[in-house]
Design goal:
By secondary structure, the chain is α+β, with helices and mostly antiparallel strands. Helix content is about 20%, strand content about 25%. It has one domain: Endonuclease/exonuclease/phosphatase (Deoxyribonuclease I, Chain A).
């Protein structure tokens, strides 16, 4: 059987309509990824029905939030999946005690099944100012990990998206000043530790060692121009796919969002 290399990119576009205005379609045509996973699309079905996007050559899979202009995920793929599922695949209450999140009303998890792997595109919750959503995020993390382990019983997983956490001090420009802030709390970093303990591989660190590169910058204080950033966007894969990852990268030259695209090339 012929070996095929897929280029998969993940990008928090901070609004797909804004992204298109800022050159997303031109980037898509030039970059030619096989699959693109998008987060924070900020468009629901009714709004999308009024817009025509020129994503020629790609099948589109959308999982918007019910709330207009908020959250949501999407996947554009040249490769047709076997199946597509929204949320954690359970119509019952997804997170115990958090009924507001039943049935993934925030559009945070979109899964495509392919022949040799599951692709899980996720927009993780932000712990928010004063950590008002930290408990919610911890429970989301737990549910997400259980979901990934369930999928792995069938086939390996490629998980990507905006994880909204810098794992180690090397993953943000000013770690000391940000200890305990949203995205760099002990609890959130422990969540990433747990993902790795349970066999998920951070592909960027796997292939790039201690390279310092960021995927998100605040719009304030010219943070991007000064490269005062955070690496909070990841590709994580099942242990069995570790040897298949040929490249893992952050393309911080691409503008159009406060996040940069991150990606992998995977040989299958």
């Amino acid at each position: 059987m012929a070996v095929k290399t897929l280029k998969i990119i993940s990008w928090n576009v901070n609004g797909i309509r804004a992204g298109v205005k800022n050159g997303f379609v031109k980037w898509l045509k030039e970059e030619k990824p096989d699959i693109v996973c998008l987060q924070e699309i900020k468009i629901n079905d009714s709004a999308r029905a009024k817009v025509e996007f020129d994503f020629a050559g790609y099948k589109e899979y959308w999982h918007p939030a019910e709330k207009a202009g908020y959250s949501g995920t999407a996947v554009l793929s040249k490769v047709e999946p076997i199946s597509v599922s929204l949320g954690f695949g359970d119509k019952a209450k997804i997170l115990r005690g958090l009924s507001s999140y039943s049935e993934d009303k925030e559009g945070r998890v979109l899964t495509l099944e392919f022949e040799k792997f599951y692709l899980v595109n996720t927009y993780f919750p932000n712990a928010r100012h004063e950590l008002t959503r930290l408990g919610f995020k911890e429970e989301f993390n737990e549910t997400w990990l259980n979901y990934i382990k369930k999928l792995e019983k069938t086939k390996p997983v490629v998980a990507c998206g905006d994880f909204n956490v810098a794992h180690h001090e090397i993953d943000l420009a000013r770690p000391k000043e940000n200890i305990g802030n949203p995205g760099f709390t002990v609890e959130e970093r422990a969540g990433m530790d747990k993902f790795i303990k349970h066999g998920l591989i951070d592909t960027f660190r796997l292939l790039n060692g201690d390279k310092v590169q960021y995927s998100w910058w605040s719009y304030r204080m010219m943070a991007r121009a000064r490269n005062i950033g955070w690496r909070i966007d990841y590709f994580m894969v099942s242990e069995s796919l570790k040897k298949n990852i040929k490249e893992a990268f952050v393309d911080d030259t691409v503008l159009g969002s406060d996040h940069a695209p991150v990606g992998i090339k995977i040989e299958l």
